[in-house]
Design brief:
Strand order of the largest sheet: 3-4-2-1-7-10-9
Structural class: alpha/beta
Helix content: 25-40%
Oligomer: single chain
Number of strands: 17
Radius of gyration: 32 Å
Number of helices: 19
Mean pLDDT: 75
Distance between the termini: 49 Å
Largest sheet: 7 strands, mixed
Shape: elongated
């Protein structure tokens, strides 16, 4: 049976018999990520409330609750009336038409997203259709028992007796609320809201169309910063060239002495060459040949990130656990912990490539990302491999503009800083994207070192990336608290001797494998 329609309009059938009035409001709240909720409010006036003593018995809503609706009421309303409310959430744009179909008054519903540089535009559309009259809200099983009347009442006889049409006894309002200001064909708009009014005696369905652009100034700010830095680099090069030219004009150009060409014993350092600890890394953070020849793979990978990581290390890490047993270093994962997107490839990268004309399949995109996160491809090569045309730097900025920090992170970092507990990050990510994100959010001064798979050439849960962290910070595993949203990454950390915490804000992870579960950053400081 259509219980959702009965909740919305069942009161209407009762009121028709009572010569009273009922008003129904459907509020569709669409959030910036495409999820949201649908709320149905049914308000009976005071006269209906007085005449119907057993309203709670007549409104059978258990089927609604079984279908995932949260039902509140009947409860007292202002003016002596009665209010019944039902709410159901939806997680994605594809779920919204399904939820509205359970109400029974909506057709052709769609919610689409268009991404542009610095903005995401959401478009909602559909029809409010209650032109079928009272019978539209009945029950076919009931009609079979009552000689074809699906509502169980003779509407024409009631209208004759009361001398007014049923349309004057019932009102349906629909409100669409979005994350930012809206433009709509609505009866009225007010900032983030648009509203329509539909009547049972309408000759045609009421069409809804509303758009809202969610703006993000960070890509423009990053572009401005990039321009300023580029200009500064050009000025620096010009000044350096002028200084070098003047120096040569004063003293003459001196050719540097060549390095010794005689054979060098194995394992020794050539005269004039830098020591292994000072050897620079390659563009992707891989060690120079002298490091690879004189160190283990773990030490070589650690040396590749030591320079960048040490510069942002807020506090030295003690080499033994404190007497209180508190961790001496907190290690965070990026995706799903620092940033609220647990699966950035599925949630953000694949839709972005598809929306921007990419030709790669989802499986091909996943493979391209894995290669880039291992330092085997640059982001420019990833875009090209996915068939996305455009300036790679512009694509990088537009893609990264979608990311959001997890709520409570900054307060968590401030508390740890006050307690003088440093914070590091170990993440599977593309090197350039990781750097741009942490700089854009101002995290490079709050977290360090950043051990990124694209720099190391290994992804969690590979032991090599954990060893890179240990070698970089110079402290044993047993003083770390490792926080991640993936059980397999925590399993490896625990195997190496770290304490672990599974970050699961949604509460959807069933098999935690014995790891402590936290729903948010505030839980770390509860007593």
């Amino acid at each position: 049976m259509r219980r959702a329609v009965w909740l919305l309009f069942g009161g209407f059938l009762i009121v028709v018999l009572s010569a009273c009035r009922v008003d129904s409001t459907v509020t569709i709240d669409i959030e910036g990520n495409g999820g949201g909720s649908v709320q149905v409010d049914v308000l009976l006036d005071a006269e209906a409330t007085e005449r119907i003593a057993d309203l709670e018995q007549q409104l059978q809503v258990q089927d609604l609750r079984n279908a995932g609706w949260d039902v509140v009421g009947p409860s007292a309303a202002d003016g002596g009336g009665t209010l019944v409310t039902a709410t159901k959430s939806f997680a994605s744009p594809d779920d919204l038409p399904v939820v509205l179909s359970e109400i029974g008054a909506f057709n052709n519903v769609m919610l689409t997203r268009t991404r542009e540089f610095g903005a995401t535009t959401w478009t909602f559309g559909g029809d409010i259709d209650i032109t079928g009259g009272v019978d539209q809200f009945g029950d076919e099983e009931l009609g079979a028992l009552l000689g074809g009347r699906v509502t169980g009442v003779d509407v024409a006889a009631i209208e004759t007796e009361l001398r007014k049409p049923v349309a004057e006894m019932f009102g349906l309002n629909v409100i669409v609320q979005m994350a930012d200001d809206v433009e709509a064909n609505a009866s009225s708009t007010d900032g983030r809201q648009a509203s329509w009014v539909a009547r049972i005696d309408d000759l045609a369905p009421t069409t809804m169309s509303v758009t809202s652009a969610v703006k993000d100034d960070r890509p423009r700010l990053l572009a401005l910063i990039a321009i300023i830095l580029a200009a500064a680099a050009v000025v620096t090069l010009l000044l350096a060239g002028i200084w070098a030219a003047r120096s040569r004009s004063r003293a003459g150009y001196i050719e540097p002495e060549p390095l010794a060409t005689e054979p060098v014993p194995t394992g020794a350092t050539p005269p004039g060459a830098p020591q292994p600890a000072q050897t620079p890394t390659s563009r992707r953070g891989k060690p120079a040949p002298t490091i690879a020849q004189s160190a283990t793979p773990a030490a070589a990978a650690a040396a590749a990130t030591a320079a960048a990581g040490a510069a942002t290390m807020p506090t030295p890490v003690p080499t033994r656990r404190s007497r209180s047993g508190a961790p001496q270093l907190v290690v965070l994962d990026a995706m799903g912990v620092i940033y609220r997107h647990a699966d950035d490839v599925e949630e953000l990268l694949i839709p972005f490539i598809e929306d921007n004309g990419g030709t790669a399949t989802p499986d091909q995109i996943r493979n391209l990302y894995r290669q880039a996160s291992l330092g085997q491809l640059t982001s420019t090569e990833l875009w090209a491999g996915a068939g996305v045309e455009g300036d790679p730097a512009t694509l990088d900025r537009a893609y990264l503009a979608q990311f959001r920090m997890t709520g409570g992170l900054l307060a968590f970092l401030d508390k740890l800083s006050h307690k003088k507990i440093p914070v590091a990050c170990v993440s599977n990510d593309v090197s350039l994207w990781s750097r741009l994100l942490r700089q854009g959010f101002g995290l490079d001064t709050k977290i360090g070192p950043w051990i990124i798979s694209g720099d190391i050439g290994a992804r969690k849960p590979d032991t090599l990336i954990y060893e890179s962290l240990r070698t970089t910070v110079g402290a044993p595993y047993d003083v770390y608290l490792f926080i991640d949203d993936r059980v397999e990454n925590l399993d490896k950390a625990r195997e190496l001797g770290m304490r672990t915490a599974l970050f699961d804000p949604s509460g959807l992870i069933v098999d935690t494998n014995g790891h402590r579960v936290v729903r948010g950053f505030n839980e770390f400081f509860k007593r």
